[in-house]
Every structure is written in C-alpha cells, then in structure tokens.
Amino acid sequence: MIIIGFTVIFFILIALVLFIIYMIFFDRHQKHHAILRNYPMFGRIRYLLEKLGPEMRQYWFNSDKEGKPFSRDDYEHMVKSSKYLNDVIGFGSKRDFDEEGFFVKNSMFPKLTEETKFDRAIKVKTKRYNLLKDPLFSQRVEKLEDKEPSAFLLDDADTVVIGPDTKNPFRLKGLIGMSAMSYGSLGKNAITALSKGLAQAKGSWMNTGEGGLSPYHLAGGVDIIMQIGPAMFGVRDSVGELDWDELKRKSEIPEIKAFEIKLAQGAKTRGGHIDAKKVNPEIAEIRSVVPYKSIDSPNRFHQFEDVESLCDFIGKIRDHTGIPVGIKMVIGGNDSVEELARYMKKSGMGPDFITLDGGEGGTGASYQEMTDSVGLPIKSALPILVSTLEKYGIRDRVKIIASGKLFTADRIAIALAMGADLVNIARGFMISIGCIQTMKCHSNACPVGVATTDPELQKALVIDEKKYHVTNFLVTTREGLFRISAAAGLDSPIHFRPEHICHKDDKGIVTPFEDILKEVKGLIRASE
C-alpha cells in the first residue's frame, strides 16, 4: 500500500510538472495577453486574483457601507426582511451623519399605533425563518414557521385610484409595487415566485416589463400593469406593428389593470436588449420574435414623434381597452416635462399615470455611459415633475409612480413627501428571491437562477420557498412605512407632504424641503 501510494503521488507530481511546463510554453507563445508572455506563472496568479476580486471586496474588504449598487448593509436589510419578516437592528445607525442627505421630520407628538389608519381586517398567510443558532463554523440553524401578520394595506377611504374617469379604474390599497421586469431578463421561476409572493401580500401589482405578458406573470393572480415598449412585444403583429385586436384581448384578462407606454428607463434611455442565448422558443413565442436571435428594441416609438401624437396614441389605447394608460419616463432637466404638461392642460388629454424612473435604477443590460450619466436621479427628478404639473394645474389628474433604489421605508417616505403617489421596487424584490449581486444579469449566467433562462441554473430558485420571501419583504416594508408615518405625526403615509422632510448639507445646515421646492419652481419658470 505504501509503494502504491508513493507511486500514485509520483505520477501526480510528474503530471503536474508536465502541465506547468506545457502552460509556460503555451503562455510564452500565445499572442493575446502580454503579461503571460513575460510572466507565465505570475500572470496566471494575477488573472485568478482579478477574477476573485469582486467577491473578495464584497465579503471581506469593502466596509458595510461601501458596496455598489447596494452596500452590504442595504443588501442584508433586504435579505433579513425577506427571510425573517423582521428588520430590527441593534446598537445604532451606520449612516454617516456628516454627509448631506434628506431626513424625515419627527413630530413632538407622534401618532399612537392604534391611531394609524390601515385595514386591520386583512391578514397575510406567510412563512418566515426563525433563527435558532448562528455558529461560526457551520450553517445557521433555522426553523420555518407559519405567520399571519397584518397586510398593512391602506384604509378603504385612502385607496389610490388610477384613471378614475376610465371605464375600469385601477384601485390600489398598497403603495408599493414591482417595477418592470420582463420574462426573459428574469427566468420563469423568478417571475412565478414574484407573482405568487406579491399576490399573497395583497394590494400590490407587478409590471411585466417590455417583454410581454407571460404565463408566469399571471401565475399568482396579482394585479398587473402591462408595459408596452417600442418593439410592441406581446401586442405586435407579424411585422412589428401594434395589433389592436391582441391589445384588446390582453386588456380583457382580469389581472391586467393598466397599460404603460415605455418612453425611457433610468438605467438606459435607449431601447431594450436581450442576448440570443436567452431567447428560447417560449420567450420568442411570447414576444413574437425569432428564437435564439438577439433582440434590440428601438430606442423610441415610430408611432409618435411629439407630445401631441403621444397623447393621441394614449387616448386611442384608453378608448380601445377601457383601462388606464400611463407612460414611463426619465427626466433630464428642468424643462423636460414642460411641453407635455402644457399640452395636457390645453387638450385635456394625456396619461393617467406617470412612472418616473431615476437614473440610479437597475437594468438587465445597458451601457456604462447610459447608466452613469444619462437621466437625473429620482430625488432631483421628482420635484421637477411635480412642480411642472402643478404649474399647469393638472397634478390631480395624474398619479406619479416613483422608482430608483426606493427599497426601504424611509426612502419611500421621502419620495412620497416629494410628491410621489406610489413607488416601484425592482432589485429589492430580486434580492428577496435570492439575487446576490454578481452583476451577471446580462450574461444568462446568474448563479442563483434569478436573471437567467438557463434551465439548470433556474433550478436553484425554489418557487415555494421564495414566494414567501417576496411577501415578507413587501409586508415588512409596508409596516415600516406606517411606522415612520406615525413618527412624523401622520396616521397614514398618503399624507406625506414637502413640509415633512428637510435636507441637511455637509456643514450641518438644515433646509426645509419647501424652500428647495420654491427654488425648483423658480428654475422651472425660468426655463420657459
């Protein structure tokens, strides 16, 4: 046995030496990597460390507040809310209070819990993990248990109504929904878990994204806003034009409550893209395209080219379907909404809602120059949109849905105080179903089965577990929203106004948001 053991080790060492010699010879004569030609062994080590760099930074070297797009603290907040139906922290905040930022004004006499106005009769049946042990050298010991918390939905009197003058208005008792995420950019298990989890939480909605309506969006029976992009996926005919008969058929599906025309997205004010390997036959059928061929939708609709023709297009869809129609847009400057608001005032036409996407929003695939430098972030864009609509006296006609990293109750409260009626969340829901921020959404190689259509990779995502994570994340966030409302002296988050927030600069000077809003309105007047 000893002789055999030494013989095996000898041959393994010989094979290893031969392999190293071969790799050195190969690296010195290859023409693609300069460093490998001069330093074969050290070059290999360099590329290995470079490959491991993102994971090393995420888990070891970045502080809890440094990671991008979401810090470790942000990520853990979403995960804990999803798994444990609990977002309690200990000891104190990790926020850098010397940095500038917005704050919610607390009231000297906050509302008591029993004074807050939400529908106490509606409960949610869910499951959460109870953490029993968290040892250092082995997995956590957790127990899955049934829970039935309040859904924390709005009181009936506070219901938000989109398109009150349409044949079939969209009524909402929850202020938080899922932002546009297409089947194709996300896999069927991910979309199904999201649909079922949102439905369990009640009072919410999901946006299909521009990839069309899939059976997985319908799996849970949740309310749906169907997005229509320039490529008309899901409602297009054989030549890519809008199929009005198919649009009518879609509008008659009970779950579809509204249509959204996608003019732009915060992370890419351009057309959408999906790699060929993601376009399987099922996705191709849903979108009416050719399987396994990359899809690049146009960066704008050819059906309209100005505000007047856009509003005509909206009106035709609304009249044809009888349900509300909105637009998704990105604001680039103080004058971005001027022409739209002016025409809406003059004509009485226009969208029933505006989904305003901030430049900090996410995407399955885009380009660095688009994600970094095109489109204003949500906290700059919201005051511009609200002020412009108010200037023309049409603010009450339009509901505003804000999106852009609004994944915690305090961020949502600030957006509501800035003028939003509702908010969308995308990546927060992705994290709730298992996303670990590997930044591979565009590659179809998502290791946790979220942003991929690969059948093998999707097996990692267990629908019957992750659907509860979606429910828990949403319910916990809603509860936090009522909690922060009470701290501000409000009985419901629908009452957040500009006077309830302020801005502190890096010198510690506090500016009421009403003053900032006055300055924004002055700039808008000057931009005419």
UniProtKB/TrEMBL annotation:
SUPFAM superfamilies per record: FMN-linked oxidoreductases
UniProt KW keywords: Membrane, Transmembrane, Transmembrane helix
Top-level taxon of the source organism: Bacteria
One Pfam short name: Glu_synthase
UniProt-recorded Gene Ontology molecular function terms: glutamate synthase activity
Gene Ontology process terms (BP): glutamate biosynthetic process
InterPro entries, alphabetized: Aldolase_TIM (IPR013785), GltB (IPR024188), Glu_synthdom (IPR002932), YerD (IPR027283)
Domain Glutamate synthase: 116-490
TM stretches of this protein: 6-26
Family classification: Belongs to the glutamate synthase family.
UniProt protein name: Glutamate synthase domain-containing protein
Organism the protein comes from: Peribacillus simplex
Organism lineage string: Bacteria, Bacillati, Bacillota, Bacilli, Bacillales
